């Protein structure tokens, strides 16, 4: 959730919300009038009417929402979830170091397991040779 640094910025955002709601209401009213008249009347048979009362309010809503909210308030070095803050950079660096240490420890453990496995196989082979030698001495 974005924290606004001043009531003025929050007020601007509220104005955007109010305008968008008004445009959507205008579109809904147009749709109600259009469908209440039927399909053989002026509104459904002329192409400019839906462009003016249906598409343009929605285009304006999308434009206002995109321009006024996401770019102006959410991004930037002072945003709470920004990657630019020193605190966030330090947290990311700590997390990366922890991950790298865990990865190195895992690699070290797998290497130790491989060495242990090799030693076990070598010991088993040595015991087999000793056992064969003992059998040949007896015979």
From TrEMBL:
Membrane topology listed for this record: Multi-pass membrane protein
Protein name from the UniProt record: Uncharacterized protein
Keyword Amino-acid biosynthesis attributed: no
Biased segments, Basic and acidic residues type: 98-114
Location in the cell: Membrane
UniProt main location, coarse: membrane
A cellular component term, taken from the record's GO annotations: membrane
TM regions (residue ranges): 12-30
Pfam families: RTA1
Region annotated Disordered, chain positions: 76-139
Annotated keywords: Membrane, Transmembrane, Transmembrane helix
Domain of life the protein comes from: Eukaryota
Keyword Ribosomal protein: no
């Amino acid at each position: 959730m974005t924290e606004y640094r001043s009531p003025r910025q929050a007020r601007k955002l509220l104005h955007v919300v109010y305008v968008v709601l008004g445009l959507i209401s205008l579109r809904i009213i147009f749709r109600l009038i259009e469908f209440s008249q039927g399909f053989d009347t002026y509104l459904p048979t002329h192409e400019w009417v839906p462009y003016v009362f249906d598409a343009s309010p929605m285009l304006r809503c999308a434009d206002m929402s995109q321009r006024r909210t996401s770019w102006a308030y959410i991004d930037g070095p002072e945003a709470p979830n920004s990657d630019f803050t020193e605190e966030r950079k330090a947290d990311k660096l700590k997390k990366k170091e922890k991950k790298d240490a865990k990865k190195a420890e895992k690699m070290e453990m797998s290497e130790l397991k491989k060495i242990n496995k090799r030693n076990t196989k070598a010991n088993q082979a040595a015991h087999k040779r000793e056992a064969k030698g003992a059998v040949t001495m007896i015979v």
